[in-house]
Amino acid sequence: MSFQITGDIPPPVEVDRINEDTVADYLQARAEKDEEVFDKVRLNVEKAQEKQRETYRRRIKKGTKRFKILPGMEVLKKDERKRGRLGRTMDPDWPTQYRVTEVGDNNLVQLETLDGHQLKTQTPYASVKPLRKRAEEECSKSGKKQVETMTLQKHLDSRESRSSRSSRRR
């Protein structure tokens, strides 16, 4: 295939002149449509964000327990440092006891030690739980005699089982 260049000039093409009013109308219609689209996008983004907030709240609420904490209560404070440390798995999760002095609106609690020294920083509401003293109360109600009786009974039972094993050997 070979192309030859000829000296013929193509016929002129007619071009319609654009009317200024038509361009202005088009731009105005386009701006209105863009505004509608942007409003719709904004509504969809807000709806998606609200949905994400709700699923996050539900997921967090599922994993955490909420207790009614009031000023004057004795609580246990969670050891947050333990969470990322691999070598401290045997340490207790709730090692220290405190007394609540103030409960804030922003889910923070002001604590003080049982000696009366106030902590410098406030603690998140989810990092404290009420101190339960049931075991101590039951022991004090029944008295030490019951505990001593149970210990003595265990001791006697173990002696009997040892003596029965030794008599079988003979």
Characterize the structure shown.
With 170 residues, the protein is of the alpha+beta class. It has 2 domains: 21-63; 67-86 and 97-157, Roll (SH3 type barrels). It contains 2 helices and 5 strands, in the order αβββββα. The chain has helices spanning 20-63, 134-169; strands spanning 74-77, 96-103, 108-112, 123-124, 128-130. A 5-stranded antiparallel β-sheet has the order 4-3-2-1-5, with no helix packed on it. β2 (96-103) and β3 (108-112) form a beta hairpin. The longest helix is centred in the N-terminal third of the chain and has 44 residues, at 20-63. 3% of the residues are buried. Residues 122-170 are annotated as: Disordered. Residues 133-147, 154-163 have a biased composition (Basic and acidic residues).
Structure in a nutshell:
By secondary structure, the protein is α+β, with helices and mostly antiparallel strands. Helix content is 47%, strand content 13%.
Any idea what the shape is? elongated
Helix-strand sequence = HEEEEEH
Mean pLDDT: 80
Strand order of the largest sheet: 4-3-2-1-5
Region (Disordered): 122-170
Biased composition (Basic and acidic residues): 133-147, 154-163
Features:
170 residues, alpha+beta, SH3 type barrels, five-stranded antiparallel sheet, elongated
Helix/strand layout:
Elements: H1 20-63, E1 74-77, E2 96-103, E3 108-112, E4 123-124, E5 128-130, H2 134-169
Antiparallel strand pairs: 1-2, 1-5, 2-3, 3-4
Biased composition (Basic and acidic residues): 133-147, 154-163
Region (Disordered): 122-170
